[in-house]
Design a protein that fits this description.
244 residues, Rossmann fold, OB fold (Dihydrolipoamide Acetyltransferase, E2P), 2 domains, three-stranded parallel beta sheet, three-stranded antiparallel beta sheet, 11 helices, 8 strands
Length: 244
């Protein structure tokens, strides 16, 4: 349950288009630094902003003031073979434990959103990300691993090249120290040296990497096996050496 999974989309604009007036330093701090108790440090703000996670204005109003509505999830446990969540409800001082099935069937449309948010916060806490400080020094040291200098780290994202933006997105991807990384065409905007450096880094990465790419040289450097997924529910795994 504490496994960290990171994803980089094919186009960096998916990650950066709403943050182009920020510097890479500001972007990473805003994404992982946490702004309040509800969104603590270590939780990916990009995850919390997803439509299936973020509460709509109506849902937020119901959460805050709805009679007997679920206000917050404050705990989780496994009991008698099923997962239960500790709920704080409006109008009640004491909390109540309810099974996951109850929340899935609950009339509050946002109940499962609260479950997913709580699970993500627990994952960050259990993985140690909740205590990783997003300080300037820590971020600069992290950026250095991706060829991002202090000058670039403090340059507005809108002024960076596509390759530099890609490096920023990759750096953000690896900030939470993921166990699994999913990369969609990661070399699209990288020059040859940057692509080589990324491949070298992935070879030493201790977690798992799932990569979609048409760059055979890159795949030769990174992959141990190929997964063939024809769409019929089957997956065929082929050792990469057998493809050469």
């Amino acid at each position: 349950p504490s496994a960290q999974v990171a994803y980089v989309a094919q186009h960096t604009r998916k990650h950066l288009e709403e943050h182009l007036t920020l510097s890479p330093m500001q972007y990473l701090k805003r994404r992982y630094g946490g702004s309040n108790a509800a969104d603590p440090s270590g939780v990916d703000a990009e995850f919390l902003a997803r439509p299936d996670i973020a509460l709509t204005p109506d849902e937020e109003a119901e959460r805050v003031s709805g009679k007997a509505s679920i206000n917050a999830i404050v705990g989780r446990r496994k009991r008698a073979g099923q997962v239960e969540y500790e709920l704080k409800k409006n109008g009640r001082e004491e909390t109540v434990w309810e099974p996951l099935a109850y929340l899935r069937a609950h009339t509050n449309s946002y109940a499962m959103k609260l479950v997913l948010r709580f699970d993500e916060m627990q994952r960050a806490a259990e993985s140690g990300m909740a205590v990783r400080p997003a300080t300037t020094l820590e971020v600069l040291q992290h950026f250095k691993l991706f060829g991002i200098s202090r000058r670039l780290a403090n340059t507005e994202l809108a002024g960076l090249s596509d390759g530099q933006k890609c490096r920023v997105v990759l750096a953000a991807c690896f900030w939470p120290k993921p166990h699994v990384v999913i990369l969609d065409e990661p070399t699209n905007f990288l020059d040859a040296d940057s692509a080589w450096a990324l491949a070298t880094s992935l070879r030493t990465f201790k977690g798992a990497c799932l990569c979609v790419s048409h760059d055979k040289l890159f795949l030769d450097r990174v992959c141990d096996e190929e997964w063939k997924v024809p769409g019929d529910g089957t997956v065929t795994v082929v050792p990469w050496e057998a493809l050469k």
